[in-house]
Protein 1
Amino acid sequence: ETGIQVLLVLKTSYVLSQIFTSATVWFSGGAGPVECCFQICKTPIDGREIASFHVTDPLCPTSAAVLITKTAEHLCADPKEQWVKMIINFLEKKAP
């Protein structure tokens, strides 16, 4: 029985950690920022997968570029990183 309890605790901890680490974007109502990033993607992303981007609100605790993939996934990235700058420059040149 102890082994089952330990397994249940580990599984619950894993699920909760996945929920918290995947919640990179926060949506709120009211007068606060609409979208803030709490986890920044550090791994470079293929720019061809990114459809658009925007920067987070200045009221957010972390400045970030929100990269929106062609499948509508929102990924937060550091706008000071070279790979992020390259994606932003490409998208800005591509825009009409």
Protein 2
Amino acid sequence: MNSEFEFAETKPPLSAMGHVVESIGIDTDTQGKCRVCSGRITDRYMIRIDSRVYHEGCVRCCVCDAQLQEKCYEKEGQLYCSAHYFKDCSPYRCSGCKLGISPTDMVYKLKTGMVFHVDCHACIRCGRRLAPGEQILVDEIAQTVACMQHFYNAILGCSVL
């Protein structure tokens, strides 16, 4: 889920309202507690992502610990930077490296539906990167590709010039 930061200015509660709230036993902590450190948020600004609030400094990627500035991604309560969200959580996976594919990645998409990062579109036998339009052998079960030279060597027992 892509969440834009919402900066909310914190304001002290109205004193009359505070007395009413205290008298009926409702939590008077209108500032909220940071989801990461559980500390009370008394700063001028806090960050709200969905229904949870955070100190600005506590909004960090759960993988690389980078402070998230403009954009963050959330999955199952964990916050991610863009790079790690797509690497770890993307529903689209490279058939070569099995890592996630981000919207900005250059890829090869085969007619079979298999998708490869440009650097991962390589022969499973020799590792040579395969060119667009090059004739290749596709193994849909193993999710691999091979150049025709290795196809002929392995399957037919002969070599192609």
